[in-house]
């Protein structure tokens, strides 16, 4: 049985109950998420061949310090970096290091800032220089998958509707959906209930209610969906070494749909790709 709780009376840990937030929380999330979105905007001009992911990590840390924001990943469960940088066949949780990006790479940069107790969580894909058409198509399919998942969010729908919208589209485009990782509740906590699967059926999962806040972050592979985690305990890669991509937004359920808190203020939600004609 799914339990819902008013966030103002919820304990400061994930109990499995789904928090329902009010207007003040939505305002706090707007502030935190826009710091994250502005950082991701700034990175569009920073990501290029020859730049080490360690330099990206330093940029994220310094941007946070300059804007009154703390990187949520820093020292989280022993993780020592301010961001995750996942290149090519890395699905998620890639650890920044001294290795430089190369022409033709694709890299996901995942940033979460804590601002006045609120967590703003988002990630985008960045092409490094000129990329192959197959990689560009994967980015296009993954971003469209995210948009289709978001379009399914409304009160009375179930979380499975998000997964069904993503899975149906991605698989029709001959791509696969990673099952091992999912979106999650967010807000006062970094990771909270419910889990948001990126596959499934529309009549499955908890009912969406006004006030819920969570991430949608589909990981889409050009090859098969299977992944493995490397010996560092963090880095997840495709087992067949096919390319993987991910885009992520934080959304809040409203009376008639949802609000996307992490939209780019500069129109750079899919940097390096042509503008959408929607």
TrEMBL record:
Domain Peptidase M24, by residue range, is: 27-255
Q: Which domain of life is it from?
A: Bacteria
What note does UniProt attach to the cofactor annotation? Binds 2 divalent metal cations per subunit. Has a high-affinity and a low affinity metal-binding site. The true nature of the physiological cofactor is under debate. The enzyme is active with cobalt, zinc, manganese or divalent iron ions. Most likely, methionine aminopeptidases function as mononuclear Fe(2+)-metalloproteases under physiological conditions, and the catalytically relevant metal-binding site has been assigned to the histidine-containing high-affinity site.
Residues where a divalent metal cation 1 binds: 110, 121, 248
Keyword annotations: Aminopeptidase, Hydrolase, Metal-binding, Protease
Q: Which cofactor does it need?
A: Co(2+); Zn(2+); Mn(2+); Fe(2+)
> One biological process GO term for this chain?
proteolysis
Annotated residues that bind a divalent metal cation 2 are located at 121, 184, 217, 248
Report the GO terms under cellular component.
cytosol
User: Keyword Metal-binding: yes or no?
Assistant: yes
Q: Does the keyword Hydrolase apply?
A: yes
Q: Where does substrate bind?
A: 93, 191
Q: How does it assemble?
A: Monomer.
Q: What does this protein do?
A: Removes the N-terminal methionine from nascent proteins. The N-terminal methionine is often cleaved when the second residue in the primary sequence is small and uncharged (Met-Ala-, Cys, Gly, Pro, Ser, Thr, or Val). Requires deformylation of the N(alpha)-formylated initiator methionine before it can be hydrolyzed.
Record's family? Belongs to the peptidase M24A family. Methionine aminopeptidase type 1 subfamily.
What is the recorded name of this protein? Methionine aminopeptidase
Gene source species? Rhizobium altiplani
> What is the taxonomic lineage of the source species?
Bacteria, Pseudomonadati, Pseudomonadota, Alphaproteobacteria, Hyphomicrobiales
């Amino acid at each position: 049985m799914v339990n819902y709780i008013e966030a103002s009376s919820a304990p400061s840990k994930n109990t499995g109950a789904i928090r329902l937030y009010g207007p003040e929380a939505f305002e706090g999330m707007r502030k935190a998420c826009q710091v994250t979105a502005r950082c991701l905007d700034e990175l569009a001009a920073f990501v290029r061949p020859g730049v080490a992911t360690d330099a990206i990590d330093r940029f994220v840390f310094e941007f946070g310090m300059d804007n009154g924001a703390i990187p949520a990943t820093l020292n989280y469960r022993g993780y020592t970096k301010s961001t995750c940088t996942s290149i090519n066949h890395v699905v998620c949780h890639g650890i920044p290091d001294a290795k430089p990006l190369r022409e033709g790479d694709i890299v996901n940069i995942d940033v979460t800032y804590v601002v006045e107790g609120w967590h703003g969580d988002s990630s985008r894909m960045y092409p490094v220089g000129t990329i192959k058409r197959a990689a560009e198509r994967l980015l296009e399919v993954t971003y469209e998958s995210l948009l289709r998942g978001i379009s399914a969010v409304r009160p009375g729908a179930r979380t499975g509707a998000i997964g069904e919208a993503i899975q149906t589209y991605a698989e029709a485009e001959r791509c696969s959906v990673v099952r091992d990782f999912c979106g999650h509740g967010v807000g006062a906590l970094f990771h909270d209930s419910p889990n948001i699967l990126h596959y499934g059926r529309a009549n499955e999962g908890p009912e969406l209610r006004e006030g819920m806040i969570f991430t949608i972050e589909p990981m889409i592979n050009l090859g098969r969906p299977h992944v493995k985690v490397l010996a560092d305990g963090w880095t997840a890669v495709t087992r067949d070494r096919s390319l993987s991509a991910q885009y992520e937004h934080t959304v809040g359920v409203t009376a008639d749909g949802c609000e996307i808190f992490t939209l780019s203020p500069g129109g750079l939600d899919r940097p390096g790709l042509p503008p959408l004609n929607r």
